[in-house]
Amino acid sequence: MVEPALKFWRDGEIRDWATQGSVSLLTHSLHYGVGAFEGIRAYRRADGRSAVFRLREHIKRLYDSCRLVMITPNLGPLDFERGCCEVLSANGMSDGYLRPMVLLGDGAMGILPVSNPTLSVVMAWSWGAYLGQEGLDRGIRCKVSSYARHHINVAFAKGKITGQYINSVMAKTEAKGAGFDEALMLDVNGYVSEGSGENIFLVKDGRITTPPLSASILAGITRDTVITLAEEEGIPLREAPITRDELYLADEVFLTGTAAEVTPVREVDHRTIGQGCRGEITARLQQRYFDVVKGSDDSHPEWLARY
Ligand SMILES: Cc1ncc(COP(=O)(O)O)c(C=O)c1O
Questions:
Q1: Backbone angles phi, psi at 101, to 5 degrees
Q2: Of 108, 110, 218, 283, which residue has the fewest beta carbons closer than 10 angstroms?
Q3: For residue 197, how far is its CA from the centre of ligand 1 (angstroms)?
């Protein structure tokens, strides 16, 4: 179980989790799922200093999510950026996971949120490897889900909207129940979309492919980071639709996400991927990723928000 940190941030102020960390049962977002959130990691780097990774981009996406569902946050993006750093400092956390959210509070009940106030919060907790250290080292086992990813006219794939995550929760629950580590979802046309909380990449004959942003996928910030790192490493990469059989026949498959970082996939639907372990290109990009987020690779200072 996750242990939230003792202090959180709400509407511009640091507060105590124990006494103020709850909301009304009439919170509109709780009933109808219209709320926006983010997942961000802060790391202690090799030089002993800490930084939030790609904070600005995460907060920008939070505001994009709000825009998609027509929530007007009560505070600005810079307040949220400050709030994220303040929560980490107030809890004395040199690394950790941040969960900013914008919620519609209690007020009008019914589908249409007419007079509901917005709540802005940032919580923090310590979170190790989301899919396990063994997953990072050896790779995980995935199942193609019986749940399709939302059609682009059913939900907003480009937003992290609370209610939309029922799709991910069902897919993950199904995969775990069947003995796998993670779900991979196809879109309604049958193309590979993404994991329940990760973007997907495959490697075939030395070239990386990942679904394009026009697909029903979240525009993952880790995805963007890995694309940049692959370019820097001179590894060919294209954004193109992926079919299920291409997935089974890939030399390497890996998932990316703030929580999952860069996690190799060693098996999909009982088919061994490549050699059944972390592949060479995956290992190179994973190493580069960890060097950039918490090691001594300072080649992207623009991605680091020191606190
Ligand atoms: C559905 C989904 N896809 C992909 C990702 C990866 O996005 P990011 O790398 O920005 O964390 C996430 C996590 O936020 C997600 O929930």
A1: -145, 145
A2: 110
A3: 5
Please count the other Cβ atoms lying within 10 Å of the Cβ belonging to residue 228.
14
The CATH number covering residue 264 comes to 3.20.10.10
User: Going along 114-155, which residue ranges are E strands?
Assistant: 118-125, 140-144
DSSP-assigned letters across all residues of 208-262: EEE--TTSSS---HHHHHHHHHHHHHT--EEE----HHHHHT-SEEEEEETTTEE
Which residues of the chain are modeled with pLDDT < 50? none
Would you call 68 helix, strand, or coil by DSSP?
Answer: helix
Q: What is the pLDDT of residue 3?
A: 85
In a domain, 273, yes or no: yes
| Rounded distance between C-alpha atoms, residue 206 and residue 234, angstroms | 11
Give the domain CATH number at 18: 3.30.470.10
- Residue pLDDT, tens place only, 239-251: 999 999 999 999 9
Average pLDDT, the chain: 97
Q: What is the pLDDT of residue 253?
A: 98
- 160 in active site: yes
Q: Residue 210 — left, alpha, or beta (φ > 0 → left; ψ -120 to 50 → alpha)?
A: beta
pLDDT in tens, 60-100: 999 999 999 999 999 999 999 999 999 999 999 999 999 99
Q: Which domain holds residue 115?
A: 7-125
Give the tokens for residue 233.
């490493």
| Ligand 1 atom with the shortest distance to the CA of 58 | 10
From the list 7, 143, 160, 294, the catalytic residue is 160
Q: Please check whether residue 305 lies inside any domain of the structure.
A: no
